[in-house]
Every structure is written in structure tokens, then in C-alpha cells.
Write a structure and sequence with these properties.
The radius of gyration is 18 Å and the shape is globular. The chain is mainly alpha-helical. 79% of the residues lie in helices and 0% in strands. Helix 1 packs across helix 3 and helix 2 runs antiparallel to helix 3.
Length: 128
């Protein structure tokens, strides 16, 4: 079984050695991210209609590659890395699911998803 670090090594090697991937930018990759996302949606339809889980699995992998490649490009630009992406989404999901991660905080647990998003934004603005 391949680990996530091994996968990221594959992505970094492709970024370094593939003539096409090595010159891509966030901007040039936008259309491919949209295309891959559309293919995931089609994969969900295939799963529903034909129980084709292999296609959805493959398409999710393509989106994961896009995320990893964007993260490697950002790392090369000194902006952030994949670890920052993972930590950021983990913290966001914990904050947005207080019934699971902070059940003792009744004031947060009673907020709707939208109210939690607004509170999260307000907290982020305070940090800036």
C-alpha cells in the first residue's frame, strides 16, 4: 500500500521531470481542475446508475492529483504546502462540527452551518 508521502513524492517527481507539468501554474491548471471535478460528478452518476465505484475512485484520484500538484506549486512559490492544506481543512471541519469535536460548547453546538461559517470568518478576520 502506498503512503501519502510516497504519493506526494510521485507528484513532486512529475512536477520536476515532466516537461508539461513542470511549467504549469495555478492559472494554467484551472481548466483541468474544473474538468476533473465535472468527471467526479459524472462518476457519482455512474455509481448511482450502474454501481460503478471504480470510475468514481479513479476520478477522485484525479482530483487528489490536482490538489497535490497545486500544493507542490505553492510550496515551490513559498506560499504553503500540502501539510498546510491538510491542517487547514482538519481545523475547519473540527470547528464546523462542534457537536462532534466540542459537544461541551453548547453555544457553538446550537449554531447552524452558515452561522458557524460566519463565526469562523469573523475569527479569521480578528487574526489579520
Amino acid at each position: 500500500m502506498q503512503t501519502f508521502d510516497e504519493f506526494m513524492g510521485v507528484v513532486r517527481l512529475i512536477r520536476e521531470q515532466c516537461p508539461w507539468d513542470s511549467v504549469q501554474t495555478h492559472e494554467s491548471l484551472k481548466k483541468y481542475l474544473v474538468e476533473e471535478t465535472r468527471e467526479v460528478l459524472e462518476g457519482i452518476d455512474r455509481l448511482t446508475e450502474k454501481q460503478d465505484s471504480a470510475n468514481l475512485c479513479e476520478e477522485l484520484g484525479d482530483v487528489l492529483f490536482q490538489i497535490a500538484l497545486h500544493s507542490v506549486i505553492a510550496e515551490q512559490e513559498g506560499l504553503f504546502n500540502i501539510q498546510d492544506v491538510i491542517e487547514g481543512i482538519s481545523e475547519k471541519m473540527k470547528f464546523r462540527h462542534p457537536k462532534i469535536f466540542a459537544p461541551q460548547d453548547k453555544s457553538l453546538s446550537e449554531l447552524s452551518w452558515e452561522e458557524l461559517k460566519q463565526k469562523e470568518r469573523a475569527l479569521q478576520e480578528e487574526k489579520v
